[in-house]
Design goal:
The complex is a heterodimer of chains A (894) and B (288). Chain A is an alpha/beta fold and 894 residues long. Chain A is built from 28 helices and 32 strands. Chain A has an eight-stranded mixed beta sheet. Chain A is globular, with a radius of gyration of 26 Å. In chain B, strand 14 and strand 15 form a beta hairpin. The longest helix of chain B has 10 residues. The chains are: A alpha/beta (894), B alpha+beta (288).
Chain lengths: 894, 288
């Protein structure tokens, strides 16, 4: 009857898990004991600041139990009812994908089928005819992560890799490096030790397209929320700029500006105009550190090609923000020590996922440069990163090649994909449906600016098209573009075989021919560090978003539920059937692999393996007088760069641009893309190709913004946790379906006859989504706000591009990429209309009956989805699991 | 010893950790003191979140985590029959899940709506301040020190917006926090002594922005703003670098006269009744 306490991490942060009699009882933050290291102490303005002695996971992390016992868990391997394994891959009823129900299969049947089909297509068409992709994290841990076990399997198999677009960073990845380098950080700047700098020096914080208490520093849970209270109490002025007066803004802003979506670059230009005409910028800094500044200044002042001065009055006409306010903002910025940035770590933000995204990112960087970026209290810093950290302790993050089982030294043999053909994620459906696709760039271009301009064509000369699609973890219906295209793609006979491997029966799973049930973190072994995306990878040292550096042994709390298995096991099983099982596993169990990460990092020097797995976590404390390496200070003050993860040229005082300076006319763009329309050598505000100046605006007058969500994470958590569906700012549970809240301004609501709580249809030519209206002054008048990344997808006619009641507002977003040579997505450049909905609504979520059918096939007394959501189904599941566990314990003891 | 929770609305960012932790603990599990909270429909830790303001020029929200207040003189206890509701020596108020069967009036008696009716079991239910955990010597024994045993909501809060402790110990964190902040009892419990002490719940604000004459396109910094309340109180301030002025935490339902003066310009006057948060105007001055 004793309780077992284990630990794990998810995207929401580290947790302690209490398990009793084989059943998870509760999920808590990790509370440190007296033996754990002391926290850092920052001295600032006469006060001492130190963090609380616990982890601060986000509320979503506290639902990991719910995710495990969720109503929409895939319990058994499943095969589409009307799937036919024809020898030539044709006539398989693919047009019914999404509509058909499923039947239960055994693991052997499912895995053998997968192995046969993989072999058949690769033999018939070539290795490149298999393609596969994962979502972003549906799980945490180095072993289970997509760049680890997924990558190992598919690289060994040989397949057409699908490049991810840098979805969270678009404007920064494709734009900012052309102004200030930092391509290795996907266009975001460094933030080392800036928490201390800010506490000591900052006076104004510009939170541009930023909702830190929603986006939480990425994977840093609620670690930084106290920092912003500290700064607030020190009298720092918070200025929020966002078409939505977001959840951090309404509590903390000293001033909120709500620009019309897509016009932020115009606001930048208006601010620059004030500084230039009033002479209130750091002229010495610009003289020393800027390249071709005067030509850009001339453009702002109206001496450029268009002879139009970018006055505050002009900026008002675009943004809707009064000219007087713009002037006041510019003067406050120039006259005080100001830090700020876009989105969750300063180089993100919904604003960069627009048609203008690159131009905004560059202009924002230019503004900070004009005020002496790198000087004390003057920097790009979004109040979510830069805590003290001991950089001498190395533990791998998921994007570190040294921390992936695909590579040495973790593996004995690195997995190498021999197929060069690629596809590109945002427009994967176009490639499949049209059989032809071209694009520029490697997606994630951290290796160099030149990688933005590599040329790709699909199919590659000499290569076959893809015919087998293996989809792993997560669902794109809520995150990608014009996502009804994915429905059409799945129904195409081009895809002869579709596999889905996931934990939950999310949107895309329902289009598969065979579904392989994976288990959650809590049901398998793994190891990982809090918010560690990588120490040399694309977001180096994101752990500085946390108050503590915590490495966690992600112990197995319970055995995999129903017949689910770990992703690693699934891949190993298929590899075995393909004849290279030993090569894949190298003879290691999952626990063995975890120990490799301990062994191949500094962790093994700090704590023994036995102690580590017993305690469950290790905190790398920060030494009392830790080495400071202030971000960008080296650049401003002219000493050799000393920040962790910098490039050699930075030691000579250079940025990663051609000239080493802030380029106000970009030499790299003149070199590679001089005639690019969307991203010009001089960054300028341009009318969005889907914005208020478009012809489309005559018919669809509202802007839609779909920022990173508050109640979801990468489509997870919200969907598994009905408790959230009763939170008024999130969803409303009506007749078995949780309708997403969409926000509309009172003036427009009145014009449309819409009241708060009414069902409101969001629609344009791409599709329609039914939401619940929240009438609020918190949105700019012409804006409809609805959170993106919905994990709940409920088309009223499954398998068709019908109205969705699950809240996948990305159905409405354009498939067009930012520019011909800017292959970034721009979902926040969407036009739509809304109306009050008075039609019929269904009785439940569209897919429940399919899951219920399979579950009942296996166990006629099992609880239905609805019983789990509303009734005692959850308790029944736990009761059964407990009975089974105790029975097994008893038998084991005999 | 009186166990209580201080709840600071200023620190609360409606992160929903307390809400989720409470559900995680109680939904689906009977304890020694309570029947299981149903999966949906009850909010033992209710987060009241409301918008403040009537103009996009200035909107704030109030975020008030609202569990049962564990009153000293609970209205629910008064309404209960047969000892169905009792107050422990440590002050925590518990509804007995057996004795309270059928007593719907207990739900209606609560002035703040913190008690919920369970139709299936025919009992009223509410927050237990996790007393069953506090009572359990095994709970968190692995951490080695009883100081770690706090209600789930308190433990989950990343902002120190919820502080648990002994209200009778002046050296405790909870007493210190209460002493350092504005105590704002929930309106429906005005004048009552409760073990849950709310701090810094906002009242209403009156605000505006002052500009120089429209054609100048300039905010007016340093304009003098005086708000005289019908109760005689006077509040004054100067507009800031955005031309903004704001008076917070005003008494509700009172009349105010707002006078805006700036040398060289005609004074401006507004008459306002403060029934809710109000943004008065973007005031454009006229030359005197």
């Amino acid at each position: 009857m004793t309780e077992k306490v284990t630990h794990s991490i998810c995207v929401g942060g580290p947790i302690a898990i209490h398990t009793k009699d084989g059943v998870i009882r509760r999920i808590r933050p990790i509370i440190f004991d007296d033996k754990d290291p002391k926290g850092w102490v920052i001295n600032a303005r006469g006060k001492k600041y130190t963090p609380h002695r616990k982890t601060a996971p986000a509320f979503i992390a506290l639902t990991e139990k719910n995710r495990a016992y969720s109503y929409d868990r895939i319990r058994y391997p499943m095969i589409r009812e009307d799937f036919v394994e024809t020898p030539d891959g044709k006539n398989r009823n693919t047009e019914n994908r999404g509509k058909s129900g499923y039947r239960r299969a055994t693991w052997d049947e499912a895995l053998n089928l997968v192995a046969r089909e993989v072999t058949r297509v690769q033999t018939t068409y070539g290795k490149e005819s298999v393609t596969a992709i994962t979502g972003s994290h549906h799980s945490w841990g180095l072993l289970g992560y997509k760049l680890s076990c997924f990558a190992r399997f598919f690289r060994m198999l040989g397949y057409t890799a699908i490049l991810d677009n840098p979805d969270s960073w678009e404007g920064f990845t494709w734009g900012a490096p052309h102004t200030y380098g930092y391509y290795w950080r996907l266009g975001g700047t460094e933030a080392f030790d800036l928490l201390e700098d800010a506490l000591q020096n900052v006076e104004t914080l510009i939170m541009w397209s930023h909702d830190p208490d929603t986006t939480r520093g990425g994977y840093a849970g609620n670690e930084s929320t106290m920092w912003r209270h500290w700064l607030d109490d020190l009298g720092v002025q918070f200025i929020y700029i966002d078409p939505f007066n977001n959840f951090s803004s309404v509590k903390q802003a000293d001033k909120w500006f709500g620009p019309r979506p897509g016009t932020d670059a115009a606001l930048c230009e208006g601010i620059a105009y004030v500084w230039l005409t009033e002479g209130t910028y750091d002229k010495d800094y610009i003289a020393k550190h800027a390249h071709r500044f005067d030509e850009w200044a001339d453009y702002i002042l109206g001496k450029g090609v268009d002879q139009k001065p970018k006055t505050p009055a002009w900026a008002e006409s675009e943004t809707g923000i009064p000219a007087a306010d713009i002037k006041a903002l510019a003067r406050r910025w120039a006259s005080t020590r100001t830090m700020g940035g876009s989105g969750l770590r300063g180089g993100f933000g919904g604003v960069c996922r627009t048609a203008n995204g690159t131009e905004f990112a560059r202009l924002m960087g230019q503004l900070f440069a004009m005020q002496g970026m790198g000087k004390p209290g003057q920097n790009v810093w979004a109040a979510t990163t830069g805590a003290p950290m001991d950089y001498n302790f190395w533990f791998g993050g998921y994007s570190d090649p040294l921390a992936q089982i695909a590579n040495q030294p973790i593996a004995d043999v690195t997995a190498v994909n021999t197929v060069t053909q690629k596809l590109y994620r945002p427009n994967l459906p176009d490639a499949i449906l049209e059989g032809h696709y071209e694009w520029y760039g490697e997606g994630f271009c951290g290796g160099g600016i030149d990688l933005e301009f590599t040329e790709h064509i699909y199919p590659e000369p000499g290569c076959s098209k893809v015919h087998l699609f293996w989809r792993y973890g997560g669902c794109f219906m809520g995150t990608m573009l014009d996502t009804n295209k994915w429905v059409r793609m799945y129904r195409s006979p081009e895809l002869e075989f579709v596999i889905n491997q996931d934990i939950h029966f999310h949107g895309e799973a329902r289009f598969a021919d065979v579904i392989l049930p994976a288990c959650t973190n809590l049901e398998r072994y793994d190891i990982g560090e809090y918010c560690n995306s990588g120490n040399g990878g694309y977001q180096s040292h994101s752990q500085t978003g946390c108050n503590w550096q915590v490495v966690v042994f992600q112990d197995k709390a319970i055995e995999p539920l129903w017949e689910s298995r770990s992703d690693y096991w699934i891949f190993a099983q298929v590899a075995e059937r393909l004849g290279w099982g030993d090569k894949f596993t190298e003879g290691r169990t999952e626990l063995d692999w975890c120990k490799r990460f301990w062994e191949k990092s500094d962790l093994c020097e700090r704590i023994s393996w036995e102690d580590f797995i017993k305690k469950g976590y290790y905190i790398a404390g920060v030494p009392e007088n830790w080495e400071r390496h202030y971000a960008f200070r080296w650049f401003a003050e002219g000493y050799p760069c000393d920040t962790p993860n910098h490039k050699p040229f930075q030691e000579e005082g250079k940025l990663g641009t051609f000239t080493g300076k802030f380029e106000f006319v970009s030499e790299s763009l003149l070199y590679w893309a001089p005639d690019d329309e969307a991203r010009t050598p001089v960054a300028t505000y341009k009318y969005s190709w889907e914005g208020h100046h478009s012809i489309k605006a005559r018919k669809y007058p509202f802007h839609l913004i779909t920022p990173h969500p508050r109640f979801d994470y990468h489509t997870q958590h919200n969907s598994s946790t009905p408790w959230f569906w009763e939170i008024p700012e999130n969803r409303e549970y009506i007749k078995g379906n949780p309708y997403l809240v969409a926000r509309i301004h009172p003036k427009k609501a009145k014009e449309k006859g819409i009241k708060d709580g009414d069902l409101m249809l969001l629609f344009n030519e791409r599709g329609s989504v039914l939401c619940v209206a929240r009438v609020t002054y918190r949105v700019e008048e012409n804006t409809i706000h609805a959170y993106g990344s919905s994990g709940i997808y409920n088309p009223v006619v499954p398998g068709e591009t019908s109205m969705d009641i699950g809240g996948c507002v990305n159905i409405l977003t354009p498939g067009k990429l930012i520019g011909a040579k800017v292959p970034g997505m721009a979902p926040n450049s969407t036009l739509l209309d809304v109306c009050k909905y008075e039609g019929p609504i269904p009785d439940s979520q569209c897919f429940e009956y399919k899951l219920d059918a399979v579950a009942r096939e296996a166990d006629p007394h099992t609880e239905t989805c609805l019983e789990i959501i509303e009734g005692h189904g959850f308790e029944a599941i736990q009761e059964k699991a407990k009975t089974s566990y105790l029975k097994n314990q008893k038998e084991a003891r005999r | 010893m009186r166990l209580g929770i201080a709840i600071d609305s200023r620190m609360c960012m409606s992160c929903y950790c307390c809400f989720t932790a409470c559900k995680d603990e109680h939904c689906g599990y009977d304890t020694s003191l309570s029947k299981r909270q149903p999966m949906m429909g009850q909010f033992w830790m209710n987060i009241r979140e409301w918008e403040r303001g009537d103009s996009s020029r200035l909107i704030k929200t109030a975020t008030v985590p609202t569990p049962c207040s564990h009153c000293q003189n609970p209205a629910c206890m008064k309404a209960a029959k047969g000892g169905a509701v009792y107050k422990r020596p440590d002050g925590i108020v518990i509804i007995d899940p057996e004795k309270s069967k059928g007593q719907r009036q207990i739900v209606d008696a609560c002035p703040i709506g913190a008690i919920f009716w369970n139709e299936e079991y025919q009992i009223p239910q509410k927050c237990t301040m996790c007393a069953e955990l506090l009572d359990d010597p095994e709970y968190l024994s692995y951490l080695g020190d009883p100081k770690y045993k706090v209600p789930r909501c308190v433990e989950a809060c990343p902002n120190h917006a919820l502080i648990f402790g002994d209200l009778d110990d002046p050296e405790s964190d909870i007493c210190k926090i209460i002493a350092a902040n504005r105590v704002t009892q929930l309106e429906a419990l005005e004048g009552q002594n409760t073990n849950v002490v709310h701090l810094n719940i906002p009242s209403v604000f009156l605000a505006g922005t002052v500009y120089y004459p429209r054609e100048m396109e300039e905010v007016c910094i340093g304009a003098h703003v005086k708000a005289t309340c019908e109760d005689g109180s006077v509040r004054e301030m100067e507009t800031n670098y955005f031309g903004d002025w704001i008076f917070e935490d005003l008494p509700k339902k009172k009349r105010f006269v707002v006078e805006i003066t700036m040398k060289g310009y005609k004074p401006v006057k507004y008459n306002v009744v403060m029934d809710s948060d109000h943004y008065v105007d973007m005031t454009y001055l006229e030359k005197a």
